[in-house]
Amino acid sequence: MAAAGRGAPRKTAGGRTLAWDQIRPAPVILVSGTQTFLADRAIGVLRDYLRAEDPSVEIHEVYADSVGPGELQTLASPSLFGEPRLVIVRGVEKMSDSFLADALAYLASPADGATVLLRHGGGVRGKKLLDAVRSAGDRGIEVACAELKKEQERHDFAAAEFARASRRIRPRALQSLVTAFSGDLAELAAACQQLIADTSGDITEAVVDQYYGGRAETTAFAVADAAVQGDYASALGGLRNALSSGVDPVPLVAAIAMKVRGLAKVSGSRGSSAELAKRLGMAPWQVERAQRDLRGWTDAGLGVAIQALADADAAVKGESRDPVFAVERLIGIIAAKGGVRGGGGGAGERAGSRSGGLSPAPPRTATSAGVRANDERAPPEGGARSRLLCAASR
Predict the structure, then answer these.
(1) Gap between the Cα atoms of 73 and 16, Å rounded
(2) Average of pLDDT values for 143-160?
């Protein structure tokens, strides 16, 4: 009924658990999970499908805590002319005891021509009904709408939006779009639909930047890219422009951390991009990008970078009087592949000399908040990779 889903259905004891975009008619449908946007999207897909099948379908929408005894059976029962019925029951996690009894009785003997959809937003209340639907065989199915917490899950969601519309988006453009709307799935979906409606041809990174380049997340991603690639001037310029326009330094550090975690995961790994992607939980193009970005890095340099990230993260979250300096210093270390730009003589510079040297840059001057010394800690010696991956995962 829907377009290709995000993944294969998951087998359960009583049948199948479907992704939101695999929803289909059944006597009883349980739409579970805390992701409200996906649940509403699934309900809309089912409603539109039933209307297309028969425009005379009767649709009733009620809340489980306000349905009276026997009302569910009444709503699902055939009318005088036998039109199909869709009964949407929201708030099943707040159901009354009488509704629980009625729903269990209905599940045992569903009405012909009716579809009853139960929307459960999470929690333990109603578990007896949920378990009954899951073990009801052909009488019930479950559609799971869990939060998309991982970047790869949001990436797959956005890719599917364009695939359903038969539109092609370049990998870098897709990554920029997902990064720009990392905090809100509904906004990400709306952005995908806007690009689909407003543009033609391939959707490139330039197109995404034209529409959404001003968002803080997009700016952070551009700064992180430049730093990891060793383009110190562009990264520092992008950082200062972002800060002057009001961008908080926290997402800037988070974007750099995401890039360095990718480097640490891929560093030292062997295999094709497809094999590594499956093993490391990354997209193949992300693996290939990390492999290119790793040129010139050493395990020692990664160790210094990870330590600098931890210091900068603490600084921008309140542990420093000068968080801007902490981020600027971080960008210098990342752009130097684990070294330090400017004056000093700490361990970070020593790490940089082992990874191919440092490019010169103007030294940091004193600020009203004070000057921090170059107090980089020495990079880990020997067997560094396992400790790097452990630190990068935090």
Answers:
(1) 25
(2) 91
